[in-house]
Amino acid sequence: MVEFLAGNRAIGTSTERATTTNIQIGCEFHETDTNRDYVWNGTSFKHIISNPLNIAIVMGGNTTNDATYTNTTEEYNGTSWGAGGNLSQSKSVMASGGNNGDAFVAAGYTGGYSQVTELYNGTSWSTDGNTGHNTSGCGSGGNSSDAILFGGYAAGALSTAKTYNGVSWNTIAGLNANSYYAIGGGNSTDAIKCFASATANAKTTEEYNGTTWSYSGAPINQSSYAKGGGGSTTNAILFGGGNSPIIATCEEYNGTVWATVSSMTSIRYRLPNSSGNRDKAIAVGGQHGETQPVYRTTAEAYDGTTWSSIASITTNRGSHGGGANA
């Protein structure tokens, strides 16, 4: 339900919006099913960004082709990118999440499958609590003290899911479908997995409630894999993806259904999990080109309405890890 407010007084609901003509500048309405705030500017309602994207992190990934890996980290401060500490392993397609001060990476591909977990304290990475199984291409979410990973690939797609408490990984209920290159976000009690299956691009959504996984509303747009995205079971986003063609499409999830919104400014795929939600998100690097990989340095941010370019990273990278302060 949407309520129009004048001060603390409700003056109409969403069904009355077309006939409400006496709203003054500064009046607000609250869209209670999406937890978004808007303000009337005299002409239209504008989405209020109460906590804009101001920190983000990317790490690892492929740099020139699928056989070249980096261990470098770059941090975003809301204006520009700067170098961070290096991972102990050069790797790609790893589980990841967090931001400049509490990021994690786990598993991934170094030329072989990995189970190493690393935690970031804002300056340097330290290894801690291996996942217990070698894999890459997991979906993931969370941070260095509360994380989740699910699915992945190691001689076949997996349904395995695990949570991390800052010390060790613990096996939880598995996904309903074997999945790799899943995109998602969340943490140990509230997580979402989108797309991905044994074929890497099935249009499905699974939600985790801290105990079990269950299917929910399917994404709208074409099947594709290695998308960017993140969020939770009530506030999620998907963008980009590749499966001939590479796309720039973006869609949002409110806990029930997906809705198509403004596309990114550039087509790209091989993007990280945990890259925001439908109020703010970031797309950094990624691949452009099907047969000859072209990894980007460009970046763009989403403010809940539109995508716009931000400062570029230094190192071309795709299939990298990342996270943002969503």
List the helices and strands and how they pair.
Layout: E1 2-6, E2 9-13, E3 28-31, E4 36-40, E5 45-48, E6 56-59, E7 73-76, E8 81-83, E9 95-97, E10 104-106, E11 117-120, E12 125-127, E13 139-142, E14 147-150, E15 161-164, E16 169-172, E17 183-186, E18 191-194, E19 205-208, E20 213-215, E21 228-231, E22 236-239, E23 250-253, E24 258-261, E25 281-284, E26 299-302, E27 307-310, E28 321-324
Antiparallel strand pairs: 1-2, 1-3, 3-4, 4-5, 6-7, 6-28, 7-8, 9-10, 10-11, 11-12, 13-14, 14-15, 15-16, 17-18, 18-19, 19-20, 21-22, 22-23, 23-24, 25-26, 26-27
How would you explain this protein's 3D organization?
With 326 residues, the protein is mainly β. The chain has a domain at 2-48. Helix content is 0%, strand content 34%. It contains no helices and 28 strands. The strands form 7 sheets. Strands 2-1-3-4-5 form a 5-stranded antiparallel beta sheet, with no helix packed on it. A 4-stranded antiparallel beta sheet has the order 8-7-6-28, with no helix packed on it. Strands 9-10-11-12 form a 4-stranded antiparallel beta sheet, with no helix packed on it. A hairpin with a 4-residue loop joins strand 11 (117-120) and strand 12 (125-127). Residues 1-36 and 46-50 have low confidence and may be disordered.
